[in-house]
Amino acid sequence: MKRYAILFVMLLAVAAVAASADDEQGIPEPSGSYAVSVHGSFALCLNPSENFAAGACGASGVTAYPVSFEEVGTITYASGIGCESVYQVLAALPSSPAYTAPNIVSPNAHTVVKITSYDAATGVGTASFTGYTGGSCNGASFDSSGAIETATGTLQIVVTEGGKRNEVLVTQNTGVPVSDLASVQLSGTDLKQTPERGPES
């Protein structure tokens, strides 16, 4: 009986060490492939007298038009770097003054994300990003061939569900080459992609 008691104590000790190791490891930073969904709104600054060309917000002759933003796609992370391939749609909101242009669709948009800080104890981190039209993702690497830079900015990230879900908030977003974005309010969710297992034989 004493022998079984000693064995039980040893098992408890092993379990405690394993639990401690898990606690020390914490919540893993984003890694692998995720499905992406982003939505929100911002003001798109355009010059009506120049066929609604992009203009710097606040500049003479430039009007800020409120638009909605939707984005779906995928992102792959490796070693703190992510490459996102997405389909984006911008639509004029009903309150937009005299702006009745059709939706702006970007079927070949990409974003390169770099994690700048991450706390594994809380799952909270920050990142910088650069947006492009064109180019391509090869896993987490970005091929900039034919790409045009369209925006830069920063993100706040919260990782949950043991690394299976990321909540993302855009904290700063600047248009390139013209600062044509204002009042940006965008947030999204990344969901870990896992291959579906077939029926066991």
Task: Describe what you observe in this structure.
The chain is mainly beta. It has a single domain (23-192), classed as Porin, CATH 2.40.160. Helices cover 12% and strands 57% of the residues. It contains one helix and eleven strands. An eight-stranded antiparallel beta barrel has the order 1-3-4-5-6-9-10-11. Strands 7-8 form a two-stranded antiparallel sheet. The longest helix is centred in the first third of the chain and has 24 residues, at 2-25. The protein is elongated, with a radius of gyration of 23 Å.
Task: Annotate the secondary structure layout.
Elements: H1 2-25, E1 32-47, E2 53-54, E3 63-78, E4 81-92, E5 104-119, E6 124-133, E7 136-138, E8 141-143, E9 148-160, E10 165-175, E11 181-192
Features:
201 residues; mainly beta; Porin; eight-stranded antiparallel barrel; two-stranded antiparallel sheet; 1 helix; 12% helix; elongated; disordered N terminus
Q: How many helices in DSSP terms?
A: 1
- Domain count: the total is 1
Report strand order across the widest sheet.
1-3-4-5-6-9-10-11
Distance between the termini: 42 Å
In the CATH hierarchy, the third-tier topology is known as Porin
The SSE order reads HEEEEEEEEEEE
Which structural class do the helices and strands define?
mainly beta
Share of helical residues: 10-25%
Beta strand %: over 45%
Q: What integer value in Å does the Rg equal?
A: 23 Å
CATH class placement: Mainly Beta
Q: Mind summarizing the main beta sheet?
A: 8 strands, antiparallel, barrel
Q: Mean of the pLDDT scores?
A: 87
| CATH architecture group name | Beta Barrel
Poorly predicted sequence stretches spanning 5 or more consecutive residues: 1-23
Query: How would the global form be characterised?
Result: elongated
Number of strands: 11
